[in-house]
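Blinded run. Sample ID left blank on purpose so nobody reads anything into the name before looking at the predicted structure. Input follows.
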Amino acid sequence: MRTIIILISVLIFSCQTQTTTVENTTPDYSFALEEAGIAQLQEQYENGTYTIVDVVNIYLDRIEEIDRNGPQLNSIITVNPDALQIAEELETERKEGNIRGPLHGIPVIIKDNIDTHDKMPNTAGSLILKDSYPDQDAFIVKKLREAGAVIIAKANLSEWANFHSTFSSSGWSPLGGQTKNPYDLTRNPCGSSAGTGASISANLAVVGIGTETNGSITCPSNNNGLVGIKPTVGLLSRSGIIPISFTQDTPGPMTRTVRDAVITLGALTGVDNADSKTLASEGKALTDYTPYLKENGLKGKKIGYWTGPM
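Blinded prediction complete.
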């Protein structure tokens, strides 16, 4: 009889309505500008959805939320303390009808081996350069500023662009720690431009600038799901970039879309007397490569992946 009574009690209790509060322990990292591109932001500036100051603030908050905190991507070494002031100045220009081009008001992150003449040092990720403040902008930084871009931060990288030893970890530096791949925090972000790749993949800015000697744009673009362009050496200036190889070094854009990469590439070209390799680009380089974009370029193509042994 005791067994039956206990069984009935269990059945009655199990049929009663239970109210249980389950705490959601998964942080909400939703983002207002998820996957936003250059054209989309320009349209939102035009229709008044956002100002340049709004957008820069949103991206700075994003850096604080998931790079400094949360998953701690470690993709950023230095945030530009003047980013909001620059955004305000560019917003004033926009209101006055002075729009410099498609990069006007677009947040950009550049690899921390590229000179900027501001309050951000150029470190190559090395402790010895943590207080090294360049006395002028690199040529491509001048081009970015002329185009109206807002350089909001400098990205972590493999120390000395992975050229300090034969044993290193992609995206690790003593100043920035280990850059993490935003798709899987345990996976390799790849290449010395790992911080640029991870930051743009994680929507910490719209455009990134990396540098490559041997795979440091293409590899992190691959591993972080981006479009990276390593231009022909001499199309973009290397002056003001910590060098490795005179014959192989080049900067290049890293973005989430082909269109954004092509727009950025055109903004960076130009002959620089401080880099003799660029002399060969005179009369050949363009400032706008977008006419060569093919909207349906993949139509009819088959894309596959290898499933066999490597």
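Unblinding after everyone has recorded impressions. The helical segments are 2-15, 38-47, 52-68, 83-95, 139-146, 194-201, 218-223, 258-268.
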